[in-house]
Amino acid sequence: QPLAMMVVFWQLFGRLAQLPSDGVPYPLYILVALVPWQFFSRVIAESTNSLITDQRLVTRVYFPRLVVPIATALTAFVDFALAMSLVALLMMWFGTVPGAAIVFLPIALLLMVAAALGIGFWLSALNVEYRDVMHAVPFLVQFLFFVTPVLYATSILSESWRWIFAFNPMTIVVEAFRWCLLGAAPTDSHISALSAATAITSFFTGMMWFRRRERSFVDSLGGGA
């Protein structure tokens, strides 16, 4: 899926719109951003419905309910690892060799997981009580896609727009992946720090909110059943 999307976006935005890519081949520039984005969007979509899908297990067996949305991230991470092999092949094709910044890739991975699970915790807990949340998720994911610098570089944005994008937790993830693997110029350090803080904050606040609402899951799911 990331490979197919890369080809379409390459033709539309790379060749027709001729968007800049910080001196990196545009297909590679997109794919390196699409892979973490696909992980993020899949975790959000699947974790939102995870408690509803596994409601019989949740209502009959006691275990830490956090395991349910976390399991969706573990499943998505398998596909993420396979997609990263495509990134490696494309890097070899274009003769791109990662620099010393690749040692920071584990931090980018942690931020990616934190951003995905943080929002996933919030939405999965809300979806138990308000089932309409699941219908809003596709629109949320689509909106976040266009306000995440997947198809373009943040360098083309005005200063005011960059600060708005700083509150998107995936901004730092995409920028970090491009910096670690492609050596693309990172965005302003203050914006990166704010985006990273947003990702970390969403994870811990989401986890606390999930744990706070956990006691009501059985009653809510039982009533829905």
Can you walk me through this structure?
There is one protein chain. With 225 residues, this protein is an all-alpha fold. Helix content is 76%, strand content 0%. It contains 10 helices and no strands. α2 (26-53) runs antiparallel to α6. It is elongated.
- Helix fraction, binned, reads over 70%
Strand content: under 5%
Secondary-structure element pattern, one letter each: HHHHHHHHHH
Query: What structural class do the secondary elements suggest?
Result: mainly alpha
Question: Which tags fit this structure?
Answer:
225 residues, mainly alpha, elongated
In terms of topology, how is this protein built?
Layout: H1 2-16, H2 26-53, H3 55-60, H4 67-94, H5 105-129, H6 133-146, H7 159-165, H8 169-182, H9 189-213, H10 217-224
Task: Give a brief description.
40% of the residues are buried. The longest helix is centred in the N-terminal third of the chain and has 28 residues, at 26-53.
